[in-house]
Amino acid sequence: MSVLCGSAAGWLLDHSSFLRAAHPCSPAEAKDDQRVEHQSLRAYSFRLEFFQLFQPHLPSLPGAAELKEAPETNQQRPKAKKRKRRYTTLNQGELDALEYHSKISGLIKDGSMSLIQEGLNKGFLHPLSGKKENYSKSIPADLDDCCRLAELCEMVKQLHSLNEHELPTLLVTEEVKRLSSSDLELLSHITENSTDWTTIITLMGQNYLMPPKSSFLLSDISCLQPLLQSNRKYDVIVLDPPWQNKSVKRSKRYSHLSSWQIKQIPIPELAAPDCLVVTWVTNRQKHLQFVKDDLFPHWSVEVLAEWHWVKITRAGEFVFPLDSIHKKPYEVLVLGRVRRSTDSLSREAESDAFALPYHKIIVSVPCMLHSYKPPLAEVLQEFVKPEAKCLELFARNLQPGWTSWGNEVLKFQHIDYFISPETES
Predict the structure, then answer these.
(1) What phi and psi, each to the nearest 5 degrees, are found at residue 349?
(2) For the residues of 347-399, what is the DSSP string, one character each?
(3) Element (H or E) spanning 271, and its range?
(4) Where are the alpha helices (DSSP H) in 209-308?
């Protein structure tokens, strides 16, 4: 379970425990009931070092060094004046961000404190002088090199039959313990693990863990046909789009999509009636307003809530100062429902049964791997019907019971991110 505690304000999550529970080992080789019970508790463990965040980030203000030397520099070079004004004059986007922050910072601070205190009481969070978990210090240095999945997606564009024929789902069953299908098959089909246990799949010579009852499609946005041809309708759709911004352009860490491209994602074709749509948004007000005023209406999604993910250290401190100008310790989620039903009475009954609170916070220690979001399955379950079908778009990992799509959908499932039960024991 990922939820450690909850309150009227929101939830405190333990992401690392969720990952362990998500990858149970099969007890198939057990010879008696006692061993079955013991084996079923064994699981692949996500490396704890990726959650060992003990100290907050305290970045110096951009341009602090330049401003400190400004008097001397101004006498020598006129350019220094421009650099100084750059950090003393806020543009409209920064002013909008400050105004937004002033409205929600109090809610975030007050809501987080009670959850953090509960985490300290439970021993999940602890002061910097307290205990630190023992963990393996050997972090594979070449994981990014062996997980270049986005490049592999170009292969699927060579499959001319993709637009002409419906492609069956590749099933991992109890009889198939390790799937080693052809690379092109994995890139052109939905692959599904129908078992109750984690299985290993091999792609381009690399091994990836696939949680129980999960399925995925590895492709880019131009090759969504297998997902659409499956005729599955989802009750929950979570998106984490690669938003365009300056830092992404500079780092070249991953490709980004324009607002126009994001609008082309076929949410109406994938969504069941009253589907809950959750979109991760950066702290840029331009993106937030686009989602609320343009994107959701384009998809016939009614905006119902705005939640925040608050990132803390293991000591219970915000990862950045709450009022930091440089970066904020929170990210935004916009939630809404697809509204296409003409039966107003049934819609009202559905809304009453699964009403969304307008504001909630999700507090967790973030994974130190770039853009690895916390699991939402458990916090969303009270707002959707039982056995809801769930889909994550632009995913970089898999979840039990969910379908995931993206051009790096297996990235954080690489077996080197995990410690096997044999190694632990």
Answers:
(1) -65, -40
(2) HHHHHHHTPPPS--EEEEPPPSSTT-PPP-HHHHGGGS-TT--EEEES-SS--
(3) strand 271-281
(4) 225-229, 246-251, 259-263, 267-270, 285-290, 296-298
> Nearest to residue 125, comparing CAs of 112, 135, 137?
112
Is residue 66 within 8 Å of 83, Cβ to Cβ? yes
Structure tokens at 41: 């508790």
140-174 in b/e form (b: 16+ CB < 10 A) is eeeeeeebebeebbebbeebeebeeeebeebebee
Residues 6+ away with beta carbon under 8 Å from 317 = 56
Q: What are phi and psi of 106, to 5 degrees?
A: -65, -45
Specify burial of residue 73 (Cβ count, 10 A radius: 0-12, 13-18, 19+).
Answer: middle
Tell me if the pTM is above 0.85: no
CA angle 227, 252, 278 (to 5 degrees): 40
Q: Which domains does the chain have, with CATH numbers?
A: 143-424 (3.40.50.150)
**Average pLDDT for runs of 10 along the chain of length 425:** 91 93 74 41 85 77 39 44 56 85 94 95 77 48 58 53 56 59 67 92 87 92 86 95 68 71 95 96 93 97 97 94 90 93 56 82 93 93 94 96 94 92 65
